[in-house]
Fold:
Amino acid sequence: MSRFRLVAAAVLGIGSLVALPATASAAPAVRFGVIQYDSPGTDNGSNASLNAEFVVIKNVSGRKVQLEGFSVRDAQGRTFTFPAMRLRPGRTVRLHTGSGTNAARHVYWRQSNYVWNNGGDTATLRNDAGTVVDRCAWTSTGSGRIACP
Structure:
């Protein structure tokens, strides 16, 4: 029997649900936290605006996780692959759309355009073996941010 994850998105104060199949039977060590899919303010394409669009990945396990080879992908197939880095238990790393210098808590996709579609998109997190470990989807502009369950 398939397990399903319900993902809520705000639609002018009304939530809409999207069911996504879970692909792993064991709880993943890392998951999506928050996705800021609509950069606050005017979308002017500046690097600051691009970097205000981000995905938070969190380590929900009790051990360090090597993120090298993990990837984040949008519905159109744009993919970011993590460099060699460890994420300690309970910690997060923020993947920004624009450019910057990678550090322990911030990495940069180095895109010159916005990645996430405000009207709806799906973020997929895969481990270094290519197995889907988490998905988060939204279906409307809402607040521009979703907390992934």
User: Anything to note?
Assistant: The helical segments are 47-51. The longest strand covers residues 4-11.
